[in-house]
Amino acid sequence: MIKRILITGGAGFIGSNFVRFVLNKTDYSIVILDALTYAGNTENIAEYLTDERCTFIKGRIEDNEIIRRICTEYDIEGIINFAAETHVDRSIMDPTPFVLSNVMGTVSLLNMARELNLRYVQISTDEVYGSLGNDGLFTEYTPIQPTSPYSASKASADHFVMSFVHTYGVNASITRCSNNYGAMQFPEKLIPLMILNAMEDKALPVYGDGLNVRDWIHVDDHNSAVWSVYKSGKKGEVYNIGASSEQNNITVVKMILKALNKSESLIQYVKDRPGHDRRYAIDATKIRTELNWKPEITFDEGLSSTIEWYCNNMEWCNNVRSGEYRNYYEKHYKQ
Ligand code: NAD
Ligand code: DAU
Question: Which residues are catalytically annotated?
Fold first, then answer.
């Protein structure tokens, strides 16, 4: 019997890497549902579109009818929801699309999981916990204190997931991962933006004092954790995912410049992000001990293979940076 899951947001950065993971490492078939927003790109999954185990459908997760049709026609076993608006700076410019995709979209998927008794995994984020001071780590018991419109929308979605577990008995789990990096990340995010600007000798815009800390994990390590949660995670449980790789932003930027043999004079300190969270850091003890998961890729190795990927894929970079991205970049960085 064919086992098939619905992967939403499968044309985005993490989702498309997850598509590769599932098709290469498991015997599952998949349906990808993606709205192909500015961040979704069929080039990311081009090699799988002709695979008989993979079906791609363009559509929105808020669209109840399309979700119903997919789940019934394709006999879906479970849903893994990667689809979301994901960039904090864009959420500061305009929060509304974040409510539609991240909150309304999650509720429409949960309704279907409830009706058809499906397994459900919500891909959330460590940003729902807010910001840490110099010490401490986020555990699954850290209070939810989102600070940006993006993290508020993700936190709201998490509350809906838990409410569906408690009220209707939906078999759902939540993952909360730290900052991802790797191939095919849209270059609005720190690492690909800095790689591409450095390659082209453009200014590298570092917000504030550059000392904000993020806890980096390679996308492949995130995705192996998501699969463990889908298969073995418990109903109603949250799993933090992280690789204990804290770095401040300026260190990351300098590592990129060094790897590309470029001058630090390209660094330009710019106005800080409003409400900029100071530090994120994950305690992943629960998933490590209960699901026996561990990350495999060190930050040094992962950053260097990521830089190599961008250097070897300039056509992909130029395609995603044409049109909408250019307008966003001008508008955001001119401010
Ligand atoms: P991304 O922006 O690269 O991709 C998001 C994808 O979702 C795109 O393909 C887009 O077209 C699609 N999408 C957006 N709204 C949609 C809608 N309403 N219906 C259908 N598809 C829609 O994002 P990403 O970085 O790959 O993040 C994926 C998920 O992981 C998100 O839920 C995000 O909150 C979470 N997450 C990301 C990180 C990170 O560092 N990037 C870390 C932790 C968690
Ligand atoms: O922690 C998980 C989250 O990580 C995910 O949920 C989000 O979807 C993802 O976008 C990411 O959020 P961040 O805001 O941490 O990522 P971003 O790449 O936008 O920024 C990383 C750090 O770099 C942050 O401190 C802001 C800083 N920054 C970012 C950009 C784009 C700069 O200094 N300059 C920049 O131009």
Answer: 126-127, 150
Backbone phi, then psi, for 255, in 5-degree steps?
-60, -40
What are 266's two structure tokens? 């390209």
Question: Residue 1: its pLDDT value, please?
Answer: 83
Q: Give the count of domains, the chain.
A: 1
Does the CB atom of residue 214 touch ligand 2 within 6 A? Answer: yes
**Contacts for 40-44: CB closer than 8 Å, 24+ residues apart:** 40/9, 40/11, 40/12, 41/11, 41/12, 41/16, 41/184, 41/319, 41/320, 42/11, 43/316, 43/319, 44/11, 44/12, 44/13, 44/16, 44/184
197 in any annotated domain: no
pLDDT of 334 over the 90 cut:
no
332 is a domain residue = no
| Within-domain flag for 252 | no
The pTM for the full model equals 0.98
Domain range holding 120?
Answer: 4-181+217-241
* Pocket flag, ligand 1, residue 36 (CB < 6 Å): yes
pLDDT at 322 (0 to 100):
85
Minimum CA distance residue for ligand 2 atom 6: 125
Dist. CA 188 → ligand 2 center (Å): 9
CB under 8 Å to 103, separation ≥6 — which residues? 153, 156, 157, 160
Per residue in 23-45, pLDDT tens?
999 999 999 999 999 999 999 99
Taking the centre of ligand 2 as the mean of its atom positions, its distance from the CA of residue 213, in whole angstroms, is: 10
pLDDT higher than 80, residue 335: no
The predicted-structure confidence for 124-144, as pLDDT tens digits, reads as follows 999 999 999 999 999 999 999
Q: Quick check: CB of 44 below 6 Å from ligand 1? A: no
**Looking at residue 142, which CATH number applies to its domain?**
3.40.50.720
Nearest ligand to the CA atom of 157: 1
Ligand nearest 151 Cα, by number?
2
Residue 22 forms part of a structural domain: yes
pLDDT digits (tens, 9 = 90+) for 286-311: 999 999 999 999 999 999 999 999 99
